[in-house]
Amino acid sequence: MNKKEVNIKTTFVEKLRNDNMVAFIFCLPALIPLIVFWIGPMIFAFYLSLTDWDFMSASYNIVGLRNYFSLLQSPAFYRTLRNTLYFTVGSVLPAVIGGLLLAIMLNRKIPGRNVHRTLIFSPWITPMVAMAIVWSWMFNPSRGLVNYLFTLINLPALPWASSSTWAMPVVIIVSVWRTLGWAMVFYLVALEDIPEDIYDAAEIDGVNFWSKLRYITIPLVSPTTLFLSVVLTVQALRAFDQIDIITQGGPAGATRTLLYEYYQTAFQQFNAGKAASIGIIILLIASVFAIIQFWLSKKYVHYQ
Amino acid sequence: MSPSNIKTIFRKYKISRILWQIFMALVSLIMVTPFLWMFLSALKTQKEIKAFPPKLFPEIAQWSNFLETWASAPFDRYIFNSFFTASSIVILHIITTAMFAYAITQLNFKLRKPLFALIMATYMLPVAVTYVPSYIILARLGWLDSYQGIIFSNSVSVFAIFLARQSFLQVPEEMVDAARVDGAGHWHILWKIFFPLTKPIFITFGLINFVLMYNNYLWPLMIIRSREMYLITIGLRQFFIEQGAYGVNWPLIMAASTIVVTPLLLLFFIAQKWFIRGVGGTGIKG
Predict the structure, then answer these.
(1) B286 in a domain, yes or no?
(2) CB B215 to CB A38 under 8 A?
(3) What is the ipTM of this complex?
């Protein structure tokens, strides 16, 4: 080994060490909050879920899996699970399907296109708290705009948020109203990426609209569909504002989702241990959804 | 009549275009109805708003509803709190994101890939699981019910890191090399070369995260207690509950909602390109 090579080697090692040091310093401002408020709490939550702590007492007991067992043995918890599923499917499916249909409608060069895109997207940027208040007024059973429009077209006026049957549809409608335009914007980008000559070729072969949708559009936007369904599912598990404003989980627990129960257990019943175990269950459900959706993607999603 | 026949007729008379315009107008109208109804209701009297069937317009627009609302709760304070915390958070996002994205795209270090994977994984996980532990950590730090509690617990944005990483990867290597030859350090290269070249991405996530933080409700609801610290969303809910106590005063509540929503609608209509590009143009975000 000659001297020159040694030199190159040491400078390389030095550079590496230097890079490591610089990298550490550059990552630190992001890593500290991430560890303190994300990764640390995630691990801490597992531990907490094994205790019966109440936020205040100096001491607590390790109760093992008792929090989980008491949840799994209570019928109310299964009701909450069903509500969560109802809300998730009810708010994700219409947003994905509606978003795609609107994007197909808007994916043509016709005047007014951008205005519609802007207006349909605008609910996404407004505070859910404020708009949930407005919606709760519009859904007012005796004086609301919605029931008025219903009576105009000879539909029965409905009790909406005060009935355990109709409260969940109200919460779902409000949620879909807010995410529809957001989903549409993703599909608009995906549709723009589809080469026009594919459609031209289909046109020459005399393929009709529905076949084009079925055999060209839907397969080619499937990565977007997958992405949206994963993200919207995670968002649905996170939904809180509209439920808190419109129904507070009621009537009679009809709109109490896992996250709402988590909030009530933690900050109204002050049961930190039990709340943490609900949090872990939400985490598990989200992971299962993510795994299923990625498994589906391997089987069915068409990447160009 | 065969489908292709119908098609030629549609083409000829442009019926499809007219139908399209009608359908889209209807969809857009439905989407903005809550905004219109909120605004119109804010201008009605108590009597008018309770009329059924409802009237579209008030007899005389009650602009005084806004003054009365403004006077009956410290909305100026709430709006200040929201703007101050949201702006501080966005500034921190810009700094933490730029530095982190620079490290994982430009520096060679052992944990580069696992670190990025870890960050992306946290994005897919439900934030709910961290609420109770984070609350306890904030309590230990003595940061409950404080600006620093709201700001620092939100000071990293995984969405922003993802966007910035993508655009940092597209900065031409020759420019970086040229700067290095001139003896520029990493700090200088980051802020004098990368940051100016990728500014659009910073504007995009800055605007989107500002809006998300202004709209944030559940987490502040957990960690904020005193009225002087209320963010606008919590202040609005408080106002909603208090007005409800004496037979709901809907015109004032609608006026309060209008006060809360209008700044964001204005921001959106001015900067809509950035929002729509930021959401759609990238592939990942929340």
Answers:
(1) no
(2) no
(3) 0.88
